[in-house]
Amino acid sequence: MHQEPDLLQSESWLRFQESTGKNVVRFSGDDFCANGIVHELPIVGKYLYVPRGPIMEAGLDRVATNRETIRDLVARARAAGAKWVRIEPDTDAALEEIRQACGERVVNAPHDVQPREVLVMDISKPDEELLAGMKSKTRYNIRLAEKKGVRVVVSSDDEYRDAFVGLVRETALRKRLVPHPAAYYGRMLDAFLGKTGKLFVALSGSDILGINLVVHHGGVATYLHGGSASMKREYMAPFLLQWAAIRDARGAGCTWYDFGGVKTVDGSAQAGSDWEGITRFKTGFAPGTEPRRFPGAYDIVLDRRSYRSYDMLRLVRENMVYLRKFMRI
Q1: Pick from 146-150, 207-211, 268-272, 321-325: least confident
Q2: For 5-40, how does the pLDDT look when each residue is reduced to its tens digit (9 = 90+)?
Q3: pLDDT digits (tens, 9 = 90+) for 281-324
Q4: How far is CA 93 from the centre of its chain?
Q5: pTM of the full predicted structure?
Q6: Which three-class secondary structure state does DSSP give residue 234?
Q7: Does domain 117-292 have CATH number 3.30.420.10?
Q8: Which CATH code fits 7-114+295-328?
Q9: Peptide bond connecting 54 to the previous residue in cis, omega within 30 degrees of 0
Q10: Cα dist. 184→19, 20, 43, 139, 181 in Å?
Q11: Among residues 128, 136, 97, which one has the least CA distance to residue 295?
Q12: Which of 9, 78, 198, 278 is the most exposed place for a label (fewest CB within 10 A)?
């Protein structure tokens, strides 16, 4: 393949999804990658989700082959019983080729699954240069955590595995997000720890202040999930956790560190959004780095009747959620 596929298109990610009970579709070759996960919804049936894909070789000489391969993907999805295929092309050019291959069946998905912007930091430089490139407040908080006696260890002990699951769910609820079930995170740890994943644990004495899961793939270290405790927030443990993971990744031969999703406007955190705080935190490590931007999620509709039913049920559900919020005001 012309480039190492995204972690979400990797074989290790497919095996993880299979461990959670999902059916997967493996569809990749020398110059195309569109591995997918089959989801099933009540009433409307199945759809195939292709996270961060398809990934295709660019170039005029590839156009005919790419379109043929996309049509093959659609045929595979039909054979799996899918009513639509949810895709997340990595470039606008890839999206255009999919439009050319599938025509009016390609529509905007009702929501994005993965973030449209991710912050990927070049970590190939020495510590001094990396620190000098950070915002002053980020450097200060890293040093503050060290002065407070926070230490970071890498461990896969059961104690820290259990704490990770609890802290990730606690942090999500604190930020008014809906976490995955505890078993999902447990399966994730089973899939990656001891292979390409590591747990970074921030400790103050015997107190666990935060834990991050970082996975290495194709020269990129990806911050996959993390959680922080409500106690000792003034110790700034999350800053030291990320710095420890960055240094570890570089030592392991990675050249990039993927912080995951951000939401920016003109290079700054989008004010007033749910992402404002986390975006400020992440961009503090690489303020001069432009986020990588994706076109977003699109659906290739295979069964129009099922897709219309899905659309109507989705709107009903969203209206019910809105009414519940309204009635609480």
Answers
A1: 321-325
A2: 799 999 999 999 999 999 999 998 777 899 999 999
A3: 999 999 999 999 999 999 999 999 999 999 999 988 877 755 56
A4: 22
A5: 0.92
A6: helix
A7: no
A8: 3.40.630.30
A9: yes
A10: 9, 7, 24, 34, 5
A11: 97
A12: 78
CB-based burial label for 175 (10 Å; 0-12, 13-18, 19+) = exposed
Q: Cα dist. 6→72, 134, 253 in Å?
A: 21, 26, 17
Structure tokens at 144: 């503050």
Strands 45-50 and 82-87: parallel
Nearest-CA neighbor of 77 among 54, 52, 48?
Answer: 48
Is residue 245 within a helix (H) or strand (E), and if so which, with residue range?
A: helix 237-251
Helix intervals (H) in 112-192? 127-132, 136-147, 158-174, 182-192
Per-residue pLDDT band at 1 (split at 50, 70, 90): very low
> Residue 41: in which H helix or E strand, if any?
strand 36-41
Which residues touch 103 (CB under 8 Å, ≥6 apart)?
none
Q: Which residue is associated with the tokens 């929501």? A: 111
Contact (CB, 8 A) for 62 and 56: yes
Query: Do 95 and 53 contact (CB within 8 A), yes or no?
Result: no
| CA separation for the pair 83, 80 (Å, rounded) | 9
Q: Could you tell me the residue ranges of all domains in the chain?
A: 7-114+295-328, 117-292
d(CA 113, CA 306): 20
Q: What angle do CA 181, 35, 248 make, to 5 degrees?
A: 65
